[in-house]
Design brief:
alpha+beta; PGBD-like_sf; 5-stranded mixed β-sheet; 4-stranded mixed β-sheet; cell wall biogenesis/degradation; 215 residues; transferase activity; Murein L,D-transpeptidase; signal
Length: 215
């Protein structure tokens, strides 16, 4: 599955009440990503477009400022698009283990492969925030609970598949680009978490590598 831009500028939530006139440090990069004229100067139209993106993904403050978090999110989406249908081109995820779920923290991507054959994904994921990083390395799924309830954080974790201590694949109801991230789990969209549930089992390999931007 090629990762799409996830937000159509004409289908946004209600606009924020205020809009900054300040030019951000990533103005040109953000303008290019949004398909705006790339002049490096904040305009009312630029601000509204950036606000739409920020509101869709829960980036605050939602004032249309082309700051670090907004550009970091857009850059991650650019990297996901570039991965296309060959996310393991660099062979960073092992191809000698049969079925394996790969998690690339740098690009915030996950996929399932059998040897070198891609069988699902890549899909966007939301991994651990700073100080709660998703741990890297080779792991195995050891516990599954389709309707798990976290007593630690008092939240539902549907389609939970644990692979490292309390860290698991599971679905969430927020954008995969919602900052700052999870508390270590690999968050997924519901359809992707359900697909992982149907395709994986206890004992299957998981490989996590890279480093999430901002951690």
């Amino acid at each position: 599955m090629i990762v799409p831009l996830t937000v159509a500028l004409g289908a946004s939530p209600a606009q924020a009440a205020s809009c900054t006139t300040s030019t951000g440090p990533y103005q040109k990069q953000v303008e290019k990503f949004m398909g705006r004229p790339v002049d490096g100067k904040q305009s009312a139209a630029d601000c509204k477009a950036i606000q739409t993106f920020q509101r869709w993904h829960g980036i605050t403050p939602t004032i249309g400022y082309a700051g670090e978090v907004t550009w970091r999110t857009m850059n991650t989406i650019n990297q996901q698009r570039a991965a296309g249908k060959n996310p393991n081109a660099a062979k960073a995820c092992p191809t000698n283990k049969g079925r394996i779920a790969c998690v690339d923290l740098t690009r915030q991507l996950s996929w399932i492969q059998d040897g070198a054959k891609l069988v699902y994904g890549p899909v966007p994921v939301r991994t651990g925030r700073d100080k709660y990083e998703t741990r890297t390395g080779s792991r195995k799924i050891y516990h599954r609970n389709i309707n798990h309830w976290s007593t630690l954080y008092d939240v539902r974790m549907p389609y939970a598949q644990f692979f490292d201590g309390g860290q698991a694949f599971h679905s969430v109801g927020v954008s995969m680009y919602n900052p700052p991230g999870s508390r270590g789990c690999v968050n997924m969209r519901t359809a992707d978490a359900k697909a992982y549930w149907n395709m994986l089992k206890n004992g299957d390999d998981v490989f996590v590598y890279g480093r999430k931007p901002g951690t």
